[in-house]
Amino acid sequence: MPMLLAPSFHWALPWALPRLAPDAPPTPRPMTDPASSDAALMALAGGGDRAAFNLLVGRHGERALRVALRILGDAAEAEEVAQEAFLRAWQAAASFDPDRARFTTWLHRIVVNLAIDRTRRRAGAPSAGLEAAVELADPGPGPEADAVATEARAALAAALGALPPRQRAAIALAYEQELSGAEAAAALEVSERALEGLLRRARQFLRSRLEGS
Amino acid sequence: MNIARFALLLDRHGPALARWPESERAAATCLLAASAEARARLEAALALDARLRRDLARPDPASVARLQDGIARRIVRAPMPDRPGPLPRLLALLRPALPAGWGALAAMACCALWLGLSPPRAAPEDPFGPLQTLPLAGDAF
After folding, report:
1. Closest-CA residue of chain B to A203
2. What's the pTM?
3. Which domains does chain A have, with CATH numbers?
4. Which of residues A87 and A144 earns the better pLDDT score?
5. Residues of chain A contacting residue B56, judged by C-beta atoms under 8 Å apart
6. Nearest beta carbon to residue A65 from set B52, B53, B67
7. Are the beta carbons of A44 and A103 closer than 8 angstroms?
8. What are the domain boundaries of chain B?
9. pLDDT tens digits for B71-129?
10. Nearest CA in chain A to B44
11. Taking the alpha carbons of B11, B12, B14, B16 in that order, is the dihedral positive or negative?
């Protein structure tokens, strides 16, 4: 009786097949599903899956770059910071715990810390970079943008450049869509109440600086 | 609610009243209906909000593409992600006990300590040992 049943077990026991057919070609590595959640992609990246990590970069790269640009005001520096943030995320991928924070919150925290550190290091001329950002950033309508709009953007960039780095980071995160107040506060490593305080001071300052411009 | 309180909340939560704490919304709506100054402050806040949404810097598509290419190139050369050390792994193992609170963790730690430090026990005593020393009928004394 066992002899009769044995052949039907071969298909049910896939781990037995390599021994039965040692010359069979190795099964190809499964493609990473682009629809996977951030947490699933990070779990794969933690195991060394570069394709999974590249999917995360494609999904969140623009946002990370935007936050860095709004804090630093310099496109080249923002690119460096965003790249550095993703490399740190790659290195720490195996330690990422989705039960403790969402991937985006975790990534924003790295970006914000790196950008604020860099702003403090070049404390000599923080506003120069932000004014330059007006020319480097996408102006929207294109070259035909009228002079009034350009002037308004320059005035806003100059006012933002005069803000302390943490208030600028609070504004950058608060105007990031899909980011709740709690996530913005977690990215800045402050309580929601403290974030509201940063935003209050930043808005008061910006309004007083931009009045009439 | 007075104007000063309204202005404070406006700066703290922004001009969208829907984002304000529910307990403050009704009073703010009443103040807006009654006070021209409150309406003027709301208008100023709305103007700043619109300006920030419109004019905050945005990266151009070329720099986004450059960022993605740069990261892809660098992680090919970068070492594999660091494996977490023993302490994070231990904490991850203990996490299921967290909902039970610190008491459960302390009890687990005490058990581990007791098991680790308790001296090895000698060979178990034979429960019938004392009986073997009793004189039996027929034994020669």
Report:
1. B11
2. 0.71
3. 37-210 (1.10.1740.10)
4. A87
5. 70, 156, 171-172, 175
6. B67
7. no
8. 3-55
9. 999 998 888 887 777 676 666 666 666 666 777 777 877 888 888 777 666 666 677 76
10. A207
11. negative
